[in-house]
Specification:
This protein is an all-alpha fold. The protein has one domain. It has six helices and no strands. Helix 1 packs antiparallel against helix 2, helix 2 packs parallel to helix 4 and helix 2 runs parallel beside helix 6. The longest helix has 29 residues. The protein is globular. The protein starts with a helix and ends with a helix. The relative contact order is 0.14.
C-alpha cells in the first residue's frame, strides 16, 4: 500500500461522514411535516456537498505526489475537517417537523460561513502543492471569499440570494476548469 492509498482512506472517511451528514439532512427535509423550507440554507448545503466532491477529486489529482510528509497530510486533513465541520453546522439536526429553516439559516449563518471560508483557505494552499491546480492559484481566488463575506455581514434576504448566486456561479466556473484539468 502506497502512502497516498493509506492517506486517502483516512481522508475519504472524514469526507464520507460529511457527505452522509449533508445527504441525511436533505433526506430529512423530504419527509418533514410542517417544515418551512429555506432555499438559501438548501443552497449552502449544496455548497457543502460540492466541497465534499471537490476535495475527493482534488485528492485524486494529488495521487502522484512523491512525498507525503506529516505536514502535507495534516494540510489535507485540515481541508477534510473544515468540510466536515461546515457540513455539520449548515445541516440542522434532529427531526425537522415544524422547523423554520429560514430562522435556522439566519441564526447559524455566522457559524457555518467561516467554516466554508476555512475550506477555501486550506484548498488554496493545497492548490499550490498540486501541479494540475497551480494555474488556479492567483489573486482571482480571493473572489470566492466575497460572497461568503457578504452573506456573513448582511442578513437581508436578497443579499443572501445574491451572495449564493455569485457563489454558485464561481463554483460552476471552477468545476468546469477543474474537470477540464482531470
Amino acid at each position: 500500500m502506497t502512502t497516498f492509498e493509506f492517506v486517502s482512506v483516512l481522508l475519504s472517511l472524514v469526507v464520507s461522514l460529511a457527505l452522509a451528514h449533508v445527504l441525511t439532512g436533505m433526506a430529512r427535509m423530504l419527509v418533514a411535516k410542517g417544515m418551512k423550507f429555506s432555499f438559501v440554507l438548501f443552497a449552502w448545503m449544496g455548497v457543502a456537498l460540492f466541497d465534499c466532491i471537490d476535495l475527493w477529486f482534488s485528492l485524486w489529482a494529488a495521487r502522484d505526489t512523491p512525498v507525503w510528509s506529516l505536514g502535507y497530510i495534516l494540510l489535507w486533513l485540515a481541508a477534510a475537517i473544515a468540510i466536515y465541520l461546515f457540513a455539520w453546522v449548515v445541516v440542522p439536526e434532529g427531526k425537522l417537523d415544524g422547523v423554520d429553516l429560514r430562522d435556522y439559516h439566519y441564526e447559524n449563518r455566522r457559524k457555518f460561513l467561516p467554516l466554508a471560508a476555512s475550506y477555501l483557505v486550506v484548498g488554496f494552499l493545497i492548490n499550490m502543492t498540486v501541479a494540475q491546480f497551480q494555474s488556479l492559484v492567483s489573486l482571482e481566488a480571493v473572489i470566492f471569499y466575497i460572497p461568503i463575506l457578504v452573506a456573513w455581514m448582511w442578513p437581508n434576504r436578497w443579499v443572501q440570494f445574491s451572495a449564493l448566486a455569485a457563489m454558485w456561479f464561481l463554483l460552476i466556473n471552477y468545476a468546469v476548469h477543474f474537470l477540464g484539468m482531470m
